[in-house]
Amino acid sequence: MVKHNNVVPNQHFHKKWQQSSRGPLKVKLMLDQAGKKKSRRVKRAAKAAAMAPLPVDKLRPAVHAQTQRYNAKVKLGRGFSIAELKAAGLTATYARTIGIAVDARRVNKSEEAMAVNVDRLKSYVSSLVVFDKKKSSAAAASATQFKGTVQPITKSAAAIVMETVAVPEESSFIQMRKARKENKINGQRHAAAERKKKE
């Protein structure tokens, strides 16, 4: 037993971490990190080339975070609700084909938030160029693929207003110190004035 008020020793030294029930060794080395990184990058590039000229990322709604602590934060959500798509004049099936994320389980609880997402959908559709898959055209071949977040959420920075501040001749600390000193010697001055009157 250990001395003093310390932790009771309870180390587990009988774990067979070298062995596994399925094979001789349980230890797995990760010496292929650089190779896996390259293969992931090649897969992303191949996926983007296969879906071109469709944007790599989908259009997502602006939603508020959960709980009372974080609900002031606005972020990108999973997908647009069916009501938002209907208000924008779209169907869920067609929206999925033009790069719009759809979340059938999402329910709108705020008219203001719904109006914001409907505006996002309308602005996206207004700037969208749709090509026919069956007819290969030169415009579709020369179209550039958009990469990055579609319609990212931008926070407008509030302008800083510089106000003119009247600076007193003496600081408030010196004024308080003088007032404290005057209050302290006020009795002595009063007594001295009384003595002069008697004289």
Explain the overall architecture:
The structure is a single chain. A two-stranded antiparallel sheet has the order 1-2. 42% of the residues lie in helices and 3% in strands. With 199 residues, the chain is mostly helical. The radius of gyration is 36 Å and the shape is flat.
Tags for this entry?
199 residues, mainly alpha, two-stranded antiparallel ribbon, 7 helices, 2 strands, 42% helix, flat, Ribosomal_eL13, ribonucleoprotein, structural constituent of ribosome
Please outline the helices and strands.
Elements: H1 33-51, E1 62-64, H2 67-70, E2 74-76, H3 82-87, H4 92-97, H5 111-126, H6 138-142, H7 172-198
Antiparallel strand pairs: 1-2
Outline:
This protein is mainly alpha-helical.
Strand order of the largest sheet: 1-2
Major β-sheet, in short?
A: 2 strands, antiparallel
Poorly predicted runs are: none
Gyration radius (Cα, Å) is: 36 Å
The CA-CA distance between the termini, in Å, is: 89 Å
- SSE class: mainly alpha
Give me the number of helical elements: 7
Q: How many DSSP E strands?
A: 2
Query: Average pLDDT value?
Result: 88
Helix content: 40-55%
Give the DSSP E fraction (strand runs of 2 or more residues).
under 5%
Helix-strand sequence: HEHEHHHHH
Shape field: flat
